[in-house]
Design brief:
118 residues, 80% helix
Length: 118
């Protein structure tokens, strides 16, 4: 089960890299929001799977901070919502430019919360 957990952690980190990396590319004036959207989706799904595995499998010996998880979940949902709304507005020809960078900033904030909050 540890291998499955580790593979989900890798997928979670790749999602974070796609979300934050896509945001950095957008800040440089290039790129597409589809990478950010897939990264945000991956972050949310794999984060939920990680918490579920940590709660369900006692051999993983994970001690969860549920307050931290709740904060990270709210940030992840907000980031996903912003990037999806921004993409939809852009596809319809409306201005969604401010939403996508905000989603990237929330992704970066989620990394800070994960790293700094012990």
């Amino acid at each position: 089960m540890q291998l499955v957990y580790d593979l989900v952690v890798v997928a979670h980190l790749l999602g974070m890299a796609a979300l934050v990396g896509g945001w950095l590319v957008l800040l440089a004036g290039a790129g597409s929001t589809s990478v950010m959207a897939w990264g945000a989706r991956a972050q949310l799904v794999t984060g939920l799977v990680l918490v579920g595995l940590a709660e369900a499998v006692s051999s993983l010996d994970e001690n969860l901070n549920h307050t931290k998880i709740g904060v990270k979940l709210l940030i992840a949902i907000a980031a996903l919502a912003l990037v999806e709304i921004g993409r939809a507005r852009t596809k319809r020809g409306q201005d969604g430019a401010g939403l996508v960078p905000a989603a990237g900033a929330l992704g970066a904030l989620n990394v800070v919360v994960a790293a700094v909050w012990s």
